[in-house]
Design brief:
Blueprint lengths: L4 E5 L8 H14 L4 E6 L4 H5 L12 H9 L11 E2 L5 E3 L4 H9 L8 H9 L5 E6 L5 H9 L2 E3 L6 H8 L1
Parallel strand pairs: 1-5, 1-6, 2-4, 2-5
Antiparallel strand pairs: 3-4
Helix pairs in contact: 3-4, 3-5, 5-6
The structure holds adenosine-5'-triphosphate (ATP) and magnesium ion.
The site of adenosine-5'-triphosphate has 11 residues, from α1.
Length: about 170
């Protein structure tokens, strides 16, 4: 059995440090010798851009292409979409296509476990998988929570940010 830990970084509130935590926690774990996969589960593609891929919409293979193939019951090669970064972390990138994919998820079979199916394909190769969520409680965040062993909820010490934590 895989010892890989899947951790979702989530908060309904935006701008609280989810992506920043994903990048820094991921690189720190890699520096300690862990095999880390970062998954960008936000159509804003901030995690993808933070790692230097400044034009995510030009990437041919992303999280949305994999999730689309899983929904369509096609064979998937998750490794084909994974980028290897100089900082020692791997990245499953995203781009704006993830917005359309989230709409398709609503009518998909097993709609909450599509990301889990994707992660299960590759988790044997990693010690830690960090999933950077978008600031919403939509289907993609539900997919991240369904795939996760644990959740990190970055929060600012502000009233509205703490409200997001409650949600
Ligand atoms: N620990 C921190 N201290 C100070 N500033 C921070 C910290 N973490 C993140 N920031 C800054 O806060 C801003 C928002 O961070 P980030 O993009 O990581 O938030 P997010 O929760 O991922 O946002 P979104 O909800 O849009 O995805 C950025 O400008 C980032 O540099
Ligand atoms: Mg973010």
């Amino acid at each position: 059995m895989s010892n890989c830990k899947v951790i979702a970084l989530t908060n309904q509130k935006g701008g609280v440090g989810k992506t920043t935590t994903a990048v820094n926690l991921g690189v720190a774990l890699a520096q300690q010798g862990k095999k880390v996969l970062l998954i960008d589960a936000d159509a804003q593609a901030n995690l993808t851009m933070s790692l230097g891929y400044s034009r995510p919409d030009d990437l041919p293979d992303t999280l949305s292409t994999i999730m689309r193939d899983i929904i369509d019951d096609k064979p998937v090669d998750v490794f084909k979409s994974i980028l290897h970064h100089d900082e020692g972390v791997d990245l499953l990138p995203s781009n704006i296509e993830l917005s359309g994919l989230e709409v398709r998820l609503i009518n998909a079979i097993s709609r909450e476990s599509v990301l889990k199916t994707c992660i299960n394909e590759v988790k044997k190769n990693y010690d830690t998988v960090l999933v950077d969520c978008m600031p919403s409680l939509g289907m993609l965040t539900i997919n991240a929570l369904a795939a996760a062993d644990s959740v990190v909820i970055p929060t600012q010490p502000h009233y509205l940010s703490a409200k997001g934590l409650e949600l």
